[in-house]
Amino acid sequence: MVAVVIMAATVSGAVAGAPAGSVTSGGVVHHDVSPGPMTAPTGATLHREPSIIGDDNRTRVTDTSAFPYSAIARVEAIDDAGQLAEVCSGALVGPDAVLTAGHCLWNPESGAWAKHIRVVPGKDGTSEPFGAAFATDWWVPDGFIATGGNADFDWGLIRLPDDRLGRAARWFAMSVLDDDALAAGGFAPAIAGYPADEPEGTMWVAATSGFASIEPFTLWYDIDTEAGESGAAIWSSNPAAPSFGRVVGIHTRGATGSPALNSGSRVDQQLVDDLLAACGELRCTVDVAAAPSGPARPAGGHPYGAVGPAIARD
Fold this sequence. Notes:
The protein is mainly beta. It has helices spanning about 140-145, 165-170, 180-185, 270-280; strands spanning about 5, 20-25, 25-30, 60, 70-80, 85-95, 95-100, 105, 110-115, 115-120, 135, 135-140, 155-160, 175, 190-195, 205, 215, 220, 235, 245-255, 260-265, 285.
């Protein structure tokens, strides 16, 4: 059994109570001074361009309480009136940390931060099997703001108020994999999230046999997505693959180019280092597992991060 490597940053200087837009090492933090109590939001999502390529191969997840789907979260941006302004997707990557797209947290067009963020892991329609939590802080890399939303930096981190949701729903581990590992047969990249064109609050998943193209900062694929799935994790869905359950990217963009392909930010060492530094500032924990080696884990085994390992926190 491959051991999970937990890396908890130890950078000093928690930002609790810090003003919006505080600069940390490698990124910018927005602190919510009034995250709750708030009721579940009402309102409509903001739609983006569809990203269905050919036939729609998404299927509904019928048991969102089972890992890995339990660690998939609906990320709700809520305005000060309690209205639902935007829906994105994300993934728990630690007991109190959620990975998502940067544009779900900071709007490049307006330069405005999301007012409040509500995180619901494993949501299924009106059912919220693990409950929900309002985030205390969210962070995007400084490169995303400095470039006005360049796709190479389109990722962010949400800090939950405690580890209650993560301990109940469990979480994924991220891995920095080289091109050969990502291109290996049977990698089967998958995306699960909360598309706006399906019944409200339902989770849908789609997978493909492999990536269409692998670039230093970007992964390209023909996995079908829709508005609302921005920020969804890209992970290996093949239980027989050595990389099973590893998060290797974040879905960020709809279909572009010819042939049309969807794309996302690749998890590389800079991304991981920035997230570790961010969690050092925010006092959260992210799970980073070393690149897998040796034979695949047996089919049916839990992915990395499925069972909460010991956590080192300062």
